[in-house]
Design goal:
Subcellular location: Cell membrane
GO molecular function, one term: olfactory receptor activity
Oligomer: single chain
Shape: globular
Order of helices and strands: EEEHHEHHHEHHHHH
Largest sheet: 3 strands, mixed
InterPro entries: GPCR_Rhodpsn (IPR000276), GPCR_Rhodpsn_7TM (IPR017452), Olfact_rcpt (IPR000725)
CATH superfamily: Rhodopsin 7-helix transmembrane proteins
Structural class: mainly alpha
Strand order of the largest sheet: 4-3-5
CATH class: Mainly Alpha
Number of domains: 1
Radius of gyration: 22 Å
Number of strands: 5
Strand content: under 5%
Keywords: Cell membrane, Membrane, Olfaction, Sensory transduction, Transducer, Transmembrane, Transmembrane helix
Number of helices: 10
CATH architecture: Up-down Bundle
Pfam family, one: 7tm_4
Helix content: over 70%
């Protein structure tokens, strides 16, 4: 294990690790090769699907609406989210050296948290968009004008980077003096805290409070939005009208359920229940699998997106 002695640090004469070892999913060469091919395929499909959605939204005037503007931002987030962790995981699956420097680990944690928190808030913004569209259709274009949409997205990103700085700071200010093996495929907070050579009770409490705020606040806003949406749908007289109104929300409800379900299992529980092998699988789900499924869910259930794809293919043919 590499160590460096930083006598000028706040930890005095204690030693601190200069790098971490990411254990990943398996140490068996054959299994690693299979996992490499699987995750590479998932990553490439994720890049293609989300990049296609961004391209369609930018090129097709029929998709120049607030809902698709937010969806394009979600796709960009998903590309960034997976790129923060998956390429490194792929390299480690084919390499005998599975180390990551302390600085890179901090950077990865910060970027991952920033994007994750931003995505949590963006889902709430998208729920509000559906609320305005269904509950106030006559004022929709006025309320959700271009300037408001940009401000909402910018605020989501700003909150993500700010709270991620707090979360990362509370985690990485602790001394890490060994061991340096992280039983995970990237530098995630619960796995890192397990290696701290100091009392982490205060950190666990602060981290838990931050998780409650950052997960439950957006989720509460989503639930409130859909409570009003449901009430508005029930007031529609025709069955066809109810189905049409609700169909505009099904994709969003699906992706929110997938993302929040896995994220809440990971972060909304006491540290004593931490299980490395189980938690790696859940991290993989909300980090990689949800990013893969999001464009599929939105495109398969969406006539406008299908139409834009056909239009693009038609242009290509000509």
């Amino acid at each position: 294990m590499k160590v460096k002695h930083d006598e000028e640090s706040r930890w005095g004469n204690s030693t601190s690790v200069s790098e971490f070892i990411l254990l990943g999913f398996s140490s068996q060469p054959k299994t690693q090769l299979l996992l490499f091919l699987l995750f590479l395929t998932i990553y490439l499909v994720t890049l293609f699907g989300n990049s296609l959605l961004i391209t369609l939204v930018g090129s097709d005037s029929r998709l120049h609406t607030p809902m698709y503007f937010f969806l394009a931002n979600l796709s960009f987030l998903d590309i960034s989210y997976t790129t923060t962790t998956v390429p490194q995981m792929l390299v480690h699956l084919l390499s005998t050296k599975k180390s990551i420097s302390y600085g890179c680990c901090v950077a990865q944690m910060y970027i991952f948290l920033s994007l994750g928190i931003t995505e949590c808030i963006l889902y709430a913004v998208m729920a509000y968009d559906r609320y305005v569209a269904i509950c106030h259709p006559l004022h929709y274009t006025i309320i959700m004008n271009g300037s408001v949409c940009v401000k909402m997205v910018t605020s989501s990103w700003a909150c993500g980077f700010f709270f991620a700085m707090m979360h990362t700071g509370f985690t990485m200010h602790l001394p890490y003096c060994g061991p340096n093996e992280i039983n995970h495929f990237f530098c995630e907070v619960p796995a890192i805290l397990e290696l701290a050579c100091a009392d982490i009770q205060v950190n666990e409490l602060v981290d838990f409070v931050l998780r409650v705020i950052l997960l439950m606040t957006p989720l509460s806003l989503i639930l409130i939005s859909y409570a009003f949406i449901l009430a508005a749908i029930l007031r529609i007289s025709s069955a066809e009208g109810k189905i049409k109104a609700f169909s505009t929300c099904t994709s969003h409800i699906t992706v929110v359920t997938l993302f929040y379900g896995a994220a809440m299992f990971m972060y909304m529980r006491p540290a004593s229940s931490y299980s490395p092998e189980r938690d790696k699988k859940f991290s993989l789900f909300y980090n990689v699998v949800s990013a893969l499924l999001n464009p599929l869910i939105y495109s398969l259930r969406n006539k406008e997106v299908k139409g834009a794809v056909l239009k693009m293919m038609g242009r290509t043919d000509h």
